[in-house]
Amino acid sequence: MPTIFWPDDVRQAGFCYGWVNPAICVSGTLQVGTLEDAQEKLRQLSHVPQWEQLVKLCGSEPIILGTCEFSQTNGSRLPVLQLSMSEPVDNIFVYYYRHSPSTLRFYALETLGLDTANRADVASGSEYLKLSQHDFTEPRKRQVKSGLDDTVINQFNSALVPDGLLQNTRLHTRQNPLGFAWLTFLRLVNRRFSSPVSSISRLLACLCSVPIFPFRTSPRLKDISATIQQIDVRAEQGEFFVTEAVTVHRRSSTHISVHSARYTNFFNTVWLMLNDITIGLAFGSFLCENHLVLSRFLNRTVEDIFIIWVQRALVWLDSWPAGLKLNTELSRFYSHTFIGLVTAWGGLLLRFASCSPALIYIIGIVSCGGVTLAISVFIDLLAVLTAHIYICYAVSGAVYQRMLKTAGSLWNLFRGKRYNVLRNRTDSWEYDIDQLIFGTILFTLLAFLFPTVLAYYALFAMMRFGILILQACMETLLALLNHFPLFALMLRIKDPWRLPGGIYFSAINTPGLSHPQLVIKNQPVPFSTIFFQYIQLLSRLATHYNPLRLLRCIFSGQYLAAISRYSIRYNKIPEEHISII
Amino acid sequence: MTVLVQTPKDWTKILWKRQSFQDNYIPPASFLSSLRRNSNFKPQTYWPLVLLSCAITQHISTIFIFLSIFVWIQQSKLDPRTMVWITGGSSLVGYAIWEVLDSISVKTSERYANRLKALKSSILIFLALMSLTPVLRTLTAATSSDSIWALTSILFILNTLLADYSALKNAGQVQGRLTSVLSMNAAMSASIVLASRLTADIAVFALILFSVQVFTLYPFLRHRLKASSTIIQGTTTMLLSILAVALTASLSWTITFLLSIGLLLITFLAPAFLVWAQKYKNEIRGPWDVAVPKVN
């Protein structure tokens, strides 16, 4: 018994039209008298420009399939079909829902691609698309002759288009007036401000990528300062806004899934930015009102923790800490140097302490551009205030790491082995007597000086660790604020039809029929796809700030770095120089 | 065990053939017949053992010579400069002995290279020690004297235990096993720890130079001397022990007494004890042991 896909909301008898390849899919019914009238009507539509797109999407032109009647006796929606090409037989009906394209609800066989890198129109030049064609782990779609495949899904999605064309109503005025007003406003803004905004954004992005040193491989400005990175993000958002606002209005040539993805992304960005600015205004007003109190608090805290406490800890280490007798000369040298450094930096900060109220006021004003800007200014402020701890940590860490390396090579010396740089392995080697004797003397020196170096390194490593944790929290907060998928989440809760992730058949029991009837429904996108950016960001953060890895870095003397800011930022517009890792 | 009908002559020691005997049957006559007792045992006699134990005696004597020199320098009974000269002189003597041994066994061309290398090494070590002396002096200056004595004794005991007392197989081999390097390290650490008790830089330099010579250079010489005749060994041992006893005599009678008793015990009594204990050696081997490959 052949299967016929029937729209769920059609209850009127008449001439039904639809597609025959690859499966019999009825699109709607025409209430006309004769077959010739119906065919005439369909032929008239072939001159409409959207007809071309329709035919291309659905594989062939819709044709008149036959007549249908609804039996009034049992009131069911089961039509009695008389197809023109076949005998009247018992058909199996599978129902589907017809949605107007302007509501952006549609069926899809695969999950909606919200990821920018995978978008077909953007990624056409990217290497990923070329690579994905050779991906043989994906299950190959078998070519079905008369079953459910992409063409039939397209036919489902465009079922109301001929209907609308026949009734000569413009489809895109059917949306709600609020949305229409918003889109018109956007179009106006876009036309007026698109080129200045776009050029300012591009200028800002270029400024942020200026390298510090004249070499090509030197770090760029946006790598060292969080504020400049945030300005870069804003500039990119501005450019994104300008380029994408045009496309919010759907052209009928774009596939509805692509359009829906772009629409969702665009409004997500807009909503995030508005949220950002709102919270930023609140935060900024708080800062501006209390700038005197906050500045006094800041001054006192900085002086107490970063200057006085560090000096006290250094003096404590110099005078037999916890009964440990460190080497007097070395310990004195270390503590004098570091105390001098800390005092010098403290003096410098004290000179600028008088303008800290003004600083907080300026931060309050800056945060009107978004609370993310305020947070990034705080991150930079923290880095500047603890610059002396950073220098002390770098120096003591370098000495500690050098000591560990020397100990390693001395161990090799005693075993009679040598590290072969050419082959990157350890070979046995015969040393001279003087090398052995010198190695012995050095080993004794190292063994007795090691506790002192370790004590000073441990102090500064702990401090650096604490500051890093603080910075990590702020950067996580920043990543949250910059990339939260609010819009998609709201859509998922409010209207899952707009985020399709596959179809499923559900059986509905109608009274009066022996067997349940199948309806094709939409399966909404899983949460992991909505949060895909998040999962990537969180996995990167977890890998970088893994406590075991950090402990290993501390013990081996490696430099504790904050995560590179570029890797916790998700780019809306994929650029060429970002590697796909 | 049951008495079986068939004679034991049909029995073969094979388990993969089903025989009429039980699996654990052994003819009573051949029970444990392949047990070997002390098969690798070479009985050792007294005097060769005494000669071998001379190495230990020499080592202990050198340690005590060093300790008495340290006490003399600390009590300012010995001028450090004199000590430096003595060290230089004795190392020259030792080098002359080494050259004599070299002329017997090593080719002429290699001897030239060895001589240059030795000159380079000595100049290098001399200058390196001279520059590192101020650092070495204050290395453990803060530690109290009691911990220093304890640390020193532990390190010297470690040195004695881990030292390489074997004879040298081939000439010119410098690199020893890890344990011998560790024992050298322990001795050097002990001497540096002791040097922190001294006050003058020149004294520290003299002591550490002497310890380098005694604990690192002298063992190589001792190795080569071992391979030579017994008379030289015996004379060296005698000289060194007499020197040690004489030097400690000026410090304290108890130590001298203990040292001489200890040396006599190690040299004469310990080999006797070993020889006497050999009759209790009861090593059982058999075909059930792990096979020992014979490598030619």
From TrEMBL, chain A:
It comes from Collybia nuda. This is N-acetylglucosaminyl transferase component-domain-containing protein. The chain crosses the membrane at residues 359-382, 388-414, 435-459, 465-489. InterPro entries: PigQ/GPI1. GO terms for molecular function: transferase activity. The lineage of its organism: Eukaryota, Fungi, Dikarya, Basidiomycota, Agaricomycotina. The keyword Transmembrane helix applies. One of its GO terms (biological process) is GPI anchor biosynthetic process. PANTHER family: PHOSPHATIDYLINOSITOL N-ACETYLGLUCOSAMINYLTRANSFERASE SUBUNIT Q (PTHR21329:SF3), PHOSPHATIDYLINOSITOL N-ACETYLGLUCOSAMINYLTRANSFERASE SUBUNIT Q-RELATED (PTHR21329). GO terms for cellular component: endoplasmic reticulum; membrane.
Automatic annotation (TrEMBL), chain B:
It comes from the Eukaryota. It holds the Pfam family GPI2. Pathway: Glycolipid biosynthesis; glycosylphosphatidylinositol-anchor biosynthesis. Keywords: Glycosyltransferase, GPI-anchor biosynthesis, Membrane, Transferase, Transmembrane, Transmembrane helix. InterPro entries: Plno_GlcNAc_GPI2. GO terms for molecular function: glycosyltransferase activity. The keyword Membrane applies. GO terms for cellular component: glycosylphosphatidylinositol-N-acetylglucosaminyltransferase (GPI-GnT) complex. Its main location: membrane. It is a multi-pass membrane protein. It is found in: Membrane. The chain crosses the membrane at residues 46-71, 83-101, 122-142, 148-166, 178-196, 202-221, 230-249, 255-277. GO terms for biological process: GPI anchor biosynthetic process. Belongs to the PIGC family. This is Phosphatidylinositol N-acetylglucosaminyltransferase subunit C.
